[in-house]
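Example (one chain per record):
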Amino acid sequence: MKKIAILIILVVIAGAVYFYTTSGRKNNEVAPLTKNDQPINNTVPAPDLTNAVEREVVNDQISNDLTNDIPDSNDNDDENTIQPIKVFNISGENFKFSLTEITVNKGDTVKINFTSASGFHDWTIDEFKVATKQLNSGDGGADSVTFVADKAGTFEYYCSVGQHRAAGMVGKLIVK
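Predicted structure:
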């Protein structure tokens, strides 16, 4: 009998609590906060990057996160070895390139920074399906292309403007 009485008291208390917390609200309405209630905030505030010290800490953390994803260069596993980008700066002028021979290894990532020193030119290599924009020296423009030299051999690069290739505006990419 005591158990039933305790159970009835608990049900009445639970009902009173429920009635008190839901009274005055419409369906699905959240009870308003009282003066002593504190909202729950599970978010972390964003760092104030206007502060140079905090900016440095955030940049260091980002750098560390990125560095942790880079495989150790001492690994003997060729698939995990990061190869540096081979960068070549080439300019085009009347019917010639400033650099007429480039040598890289198979698998190298190659970046060509091209400018037109005089005239209207571009840099194209068909086998790797890359070409810069056609640039006019008067515009002072430059363009870059990046590709992986995934085929061994000797490949011709050229200027595709008009008859420039036929006039000798060519070079060799040698992939060992």
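Caption: Residues 57-77 have pLDDT under 50 and may be disordered.
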